[in-house]
């Protein structure tokens, strides 16, 4: 369970900072995600009230706030991201009223990197120089800073690897016959609820050609997901509800 800083002094600091943005007509930055893809745009502060804030947001941000029922705000005058929840959303004018501003102790999502879940089954072969190999299924994929590749694989319950073991991964994307290889270490290994399988995370690097292929695959999935979010916004603007 999250613990959050909610002191009156901190609340006053947040409001004072937003008042400065309103007076000086300086935008803040909002952070959301959609299906693992960051949605980050500037927003104008339109109103500041002790109980709620009015923001003029980008269409995609508006849709993401509706879906997540929250957003994170960033300002140069504040050392931390601020979490807020929407009170009302005007999709035509892209005005979002938010309340309950606070600094979260923990943010569950990665707001800066895309974590792509494949739409088709992708088999992954895992092996180690120390011995042991097995097959798994790709759960998600991310390209992090410093050319690091993070791969999450669903594997059987019996795993011949331990945390920090060096490991090699091989897999193919559905639209290509080329084998992609990633060499790294076991970052974490956890059981999956109600399943006789485990979640194995590997963080490592790929050769340049394979890294380019990974980045291209992530970019294609990002484009497809952003197109989905655009369609969701248009649906909301027309006054149509969203399917569960």
Describe it for me?
- With 244 residues, the chain is α+β, with helices and mostly antiparallel strands.
- It folds into two domains: 4-104, Pnp Oxidase, Chain A; 115-222, Beta Barrel (Thrombin, subunit H), CATH 2.40.10.
- It is 23% helix and 41% strand.
- The protein has helices spanning 8-24, 59-68, 208-237; strands at residues 4-5, 28-34, 37-48, 53-56, 71-74, 82-90, 95-104, 115-116, 123-127, 133-143, 149-156, 166-171, 180-191, 197-205.
- The strands form two sheets. A six-stranded antiparallel barrel has the order 2-3-4-7-6-5.
- Strand 6 (82-90) and strand 7 (95-104) form a beta hairpin.
- Helix 2 (59-68) crosses helix 3 (208-237).
- The protein is elongated and about 65 Å long.
- The protein starts with a strand and ends in a 7-residue tail after the last helix.
Which SSEs are present, and which pair or pack?
Layout: E1 4-5, H1 8-24, E2 28-34, E3 37-48, E4 53-56, H2 59-68, E5 71-74, E6 82-90, E7 95-104, E8 115-116, E9 123-127, E10 133-143, E11 149-156, E12 166-171, E13 180-191, E14 197-205, H3 208-237
Antiparallel strand pairs: 1-7, 2-3, 2-5, 3-4, 4-7, 5-6, 6-7, 8-10, 9-10, 9-12, 10-11, 11-14, 12-13, 13-14
Helix pairs in contact: 2-3
Task: Write a compact overview of the structure shown.
With 244 residues, this protein is of the alpha+beta class.
Task: Identify the notable features of this structure and list them briefly.
alpha+beta; 244 residues; Pnp Oxidase, Chain A; six-stranded antiparallel beta barrel; single chain; 2 domains; Thrombin, subunit H; elongated
């Amino acid at each position: 369970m999250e613990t959050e800083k909610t002191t009156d002094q901190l609340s006053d600091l947040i409001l004072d900072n937003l008042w400065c943005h309103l007076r000086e007509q300086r935008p803040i930055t909002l952070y959301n995600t959609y299906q693992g893809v960051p949605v980050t745009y500037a927003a104008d502060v339109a109103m500041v009230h002790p109980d709620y804030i009015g923001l003029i947001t980008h269409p995609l941000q508006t849709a993401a706030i509706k879906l997540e029922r929250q957003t994170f705000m960033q300002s140069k005058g504040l050392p931390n991201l601020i979490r807020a929840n929407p009170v009302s959303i005007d999709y035509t004018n892209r005005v979002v009223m938010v309340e309950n501003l606070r600094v979260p102790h923990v943010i569950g999502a990665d707001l800066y990197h895309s974590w792509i879940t494949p739409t088709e089954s992708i088999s992954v072969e895992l092996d180690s120089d120390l011995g042991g190999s097995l097959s798994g299924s790709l759960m998600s994929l991310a390209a992090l800073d410093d050319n690091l590749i993070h791969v999450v694989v669903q594997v059987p319950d019996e795993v011949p690897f331990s945390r920090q073991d060096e490991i090699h991964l091989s897999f193919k994307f559905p639209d290509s016959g080329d084998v992609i290889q990633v060499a790294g270490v076991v970052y974490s290994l956890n059981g999956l609820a109600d399943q006789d399988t485990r979640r194995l995370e590997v963080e490592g690097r790929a050769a340049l050609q394979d890294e380019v292929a990974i980045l291209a695959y992530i970019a294609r999935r990002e484009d497809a997901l952003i197109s989905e979010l655009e369609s969701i916004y248009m649906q909301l603007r027309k006054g149509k509800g969203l399917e569960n």
